[in-house]
Design a protein that fits this description.
CATH architecture of one domain: 3-Layer(aba) Sandwich
CATH superfamily of one domain: P-loop containing nucleotide triphosphate hydrolases
Number of helices: 25
Structural class: alpha/beta
CATH topology of one domain: Rossmann fold
Bound molecules: adenosine-5'-diphosphate, magnesium ion
Radius of gyration: 32 Å
Strand order of the largest sheet: 6-7-4-3-2-5-8
Oligomer: single chain
CATH class of one domain: Alpha Beta
Number of strands: 22
């Protein structure tokens, strides 16, 4: 009997060449890998159709009957072979375009067959190309399950002759001969408690289920196991992290914070803001390095939270930094914080790629001798030359814009790492975030400041354009400003640029000077020109801002009341939501108009519909998740943690929670896995290769 880690090459029917293909195409290297290569769907082979009662579509069906005649028909290239197949109710033609010489030899006339294949309808007549055929006498012995597994495959495998059939045979072979070698991977008390079947049985039944009921119980046992070990590793790793990394202790709240809070804060904080600040303060006093994710919908007021936290750092004699993904956003942060901090003793500076050398030197110096309290910037902050005297906290805005490597540079410089707060407006459903990132601490600002009117969202196409323009003119007349956003200009995509420039030209005609003034900002402009244009808009010297998605993140112009998104079908949901968040920041009613072509894919339709229907970032994130799958969640692309074999983070979310709670409970009861009944967990864990990438995101 073979062990589970035996190389797949040694399985009967594989050999070196097939082993190489299986490894390259499907990442199957061992017996174990093949047994954990699960069917993507099943076909019910307990059902037979009568020929006069076939479904009128291209589904796969199974029929019992006899071949009564065979003929050859000439066609453009070569011949095709056609067999007349009959049951008591009618006949159907079976067709072979290739390989029929060999097939003909094995076909027997007037014997009972079971055939299986996909229907093809032509002129109201059904035929079946290249059916699978089995003599009925053999069929009974051969089919070991009612459900027939269909495995995911690749073009290359099929071309190289590793068809469904071949994979089915390999798996069947393995199950017959080796499945008993697969040791149990869950403790007996869990099997008892959840009434799970054994590992060996589950593997057998997931590949060859005898009924839907058995299939379901095999699947839930395997899904649970997959989640359980994923969660177990996450939780253990987090405990290690927390024990290991010491952090600065911010023990007090002093005058800097208190004076600002009493005298300068322009509004009272929302309950959510207060709660979040408390959560962060707890971390800062704990003696361990904080790694917290702050989620809050666009406009929920994350900036002020960041400022207050930075003031606490200053009260504890530390410096603070706030990093933004774009120069525009960094300088906006700088301007608004500068304004808020006027007439206080807090020293704040801005450092970006376009800061002049002379100013740069001054900043570097003030940073090193500790005169400077807060440094705002872009990734220019990550340069080697930028040395803080004592950076206590690094706040990163809109994290999904950053590469992992860039972030870690920031604290390699110091011995004790600064606390890290990552702010994002791209929400992840909370339970999901916990499940994926383990105990990465997550704070959520879950309500907006009072008095906000939800943005009204409409979906229009070109036939409505004139009416849209009239509407915009009315809004401008009332003193409001308007954004027009075009899809991102990518370096190589000349087309996008042309769209934007064409748009600019036609808007200039529809909104002529001097009555209307237009700003334009796009990725190909120099930073200085961008901020000049931006500034004109902020100062209301222009009423219309034409832009690519550079304005997506964080721009704050409360007087802007209309957001027009051109070619909206080309944007992702979270991007659309972010863009919409640029309006609705003042007290007046705001609008978001999604312009699109009239031919839309189903997915694009769903995106636009969702935007029209909902203003809630969490709802939108859920739909986005369903449309695109969890692979696109921030930080998870590199992690591999979501490469689950059978479980689905979204569909099986309930089971995920159960698995997580179970793992938590066991770790609490038996942290070092010393109990006899938990040895099986210990053994299984050590056999798992842990994908270390996810920890780049967290630590
Ligand atoms: P985001 O979370 O998208 O970064 P901002 O921090 O830019 O949001 O805040 C959006 C707007 O809401 C800003 O104009 C800010 O001054 C305002 N704001 C933030 N908190 C409050 C509050 N508690 N009450 C009233 N207005 C607030
Ligand atoms: Mg912001």
């Amino acid at each position: 009997m073979s062990g589970t880690h035996t190389a797949i090459e040694y399985l009967k029917g594989v050999g070196p060449e097939r082993a190489r293909l299986l490894k390259e195409e499907l990442d199957i290297k061992t017996f174990q890998d093949l047994l954990h290569f699960f069917p993507s769907r099943y076909i019910d082979r307990s059902q037979f159709y009568n020929i006069n009662n076939l479904p009128q579509n291209n589904s796969e069906v199974q029929i019992k009957g006899k071949i009564s005649d065979i003929e050859y028909i000439n066609q453009k290239r070569g011949k095709r072979m056609v067999a007349l197949f009959q049951d008591e109710t009618g006949f159907i033609k079976l067709v072979w375009f290739r390989g029929y010489k060999w097939i003909r030899e094995s076909l027997k006339l007037n014997e009972n067959y079971v055939i299986f294949g996909r229907l093809n309808w032509f002129n109201g007549q059904a035929n079946m190309p290249h059916p699978e055929m089995e003599l009925e006498v053999n069929f009974q012995n051969k089919i070991i399950a009612a459900f027939y597994p269909i495995y995911p495959s690749t073009e290359k495998l099929i071309n190289k002759g590793i068809s469904q059939r071949v994979i089915q045979k390999l798996v069947a072979n393995l199950i017959e001969n080796s499945v008993e070698a697969f040791k149990e991977t869950l403790p007996q008390y869990l099997l008892d408690h959840y009434k799970f079947i054994s590992k060996a049985k589950a593997l057998k039944e997931v590949h060859y289920p005898v009924s839907q009921k058995n299939l379901s119980r095999a699947q839930s046992r395997l899904k649970f196991e997959e989640f359980f070990y994923m969660q177990f590793q996450l939780i253990l790793k987090n405990i290690q992290r927390k024990n290991k990394i010491k952090g600065f202790i911010f023990s007090k709240v002093g005058n800097t914070f208190n004076d600002f809070y009493k005298k300068k804060l322009p509004f009272s904080l929302t309950l959510a803001q207060k709660r979040v600040i408390k959560e962060i303060r707890n971390d800062l006093g704990s003696g361990r390095q904080m790694n917290r994710l702050l989620q809050g919908d666009v406009g929920s007021g994350k900036t002020i939270v960041a400022l207050l936290i930075m003031l606490i750092a200053i009260d504890n004699n530390f410096q603070a930094s706030l990093v933004a993904p774009t120069e525009i956003l960094a300088s906006q942060h700088y301007q608004s914080l500068l304004e808020l901090l006027r007439n206080t003793s807090v020293k704040i500076e801005l450092l970006t790629g376009s800061t002049r050398l002379k100013d740069r030197k001054v900043i570097h110096e003030a940073l090193q001798n500790g005169e400077l309290n807060i440094l705002i910037g872009t990734h220019a902050l990550f340069e080697e030359k930028v040395q803080f005297k004592n950076l206590g906290i690094a706040i990163i805005d809109e994290q999904h814009r950053f590469g992992v490597a860039q972030r870690s540079k920031l604290w390699e410089k110091n011995k004790t790492p600064p606390h890290v707060l990552v702010m994002t407006a791209t929400p992840i459903p909370r339970t999901l975030a916990m499940s994926i990132y383990g105990d990465l601490d997550v704070s959520v600002i879950d309500n907006l400041p009072p008095g906000r009117k939800p943005v009204k969202t409409l979906h229009c196409n070109d036939s409505n354009r004139l009416r849209v323009f009239d509407f915009i003119k009315k809004q401008i007349k009332e003193g409001h400003q308007v954004y027009f956003v075009y899809p991102l200009i990518q370096e190589s995509e000349k087309l996008d640029y042309k769209d934007l420039m064409d748009g600019y030209e036609s808007l200039s005609r529809s909104f002529p000077q001097p009555q209307y003034q237009i700003s334009i900002v796009h990725g190909k402009m120099k930073a200085g020109d961008k901020s000049f244009e931006m500034k004109r808009f902020v100062e209301r010297k222009t009423q219309i801002m034409i832009a690519t998605t550079v304005i997506e993140v964080g721009v704050n112009v409360p007087n802007a009341s209309v957001m027009i998104i051109e070619s909206a079908e080309r944007f992702g949901l979270s991007q659309l939501h972010q863009l919409r968040g640029r309006v609705g920041r003042g007290s007046d009613q705001s609008y978001c108009i999604l312009m699109s072509g009239s031919k839309l894919s189903e997915e694009a339709k769903t995106r636009l519909k969702t935007m029209v229907k909902s203003n809630d970032g969490f709802d939108i994130a859920e739909v986005d998740l369903r449309l695109r799958g969890p692979g696109n969640l921030m930080g998870t692309q590199q992690s591999g943690i979501l490469k689950l074999k059978i479980a689905d983070i979204i569909k099986d979310n309930t089971l995920l929670k159960v698995a997580r709670d179970t793992a938590n409970e066991i770790i609490k009861q038996d942290p070092n896995l010393e109990r006899t009944e938990n040895q099986v967990i210990k053994r299984t864990l050590s056999a798992l290769r842990f994908d270390s990438n996810i920890w780049n995101f967290i630590s």
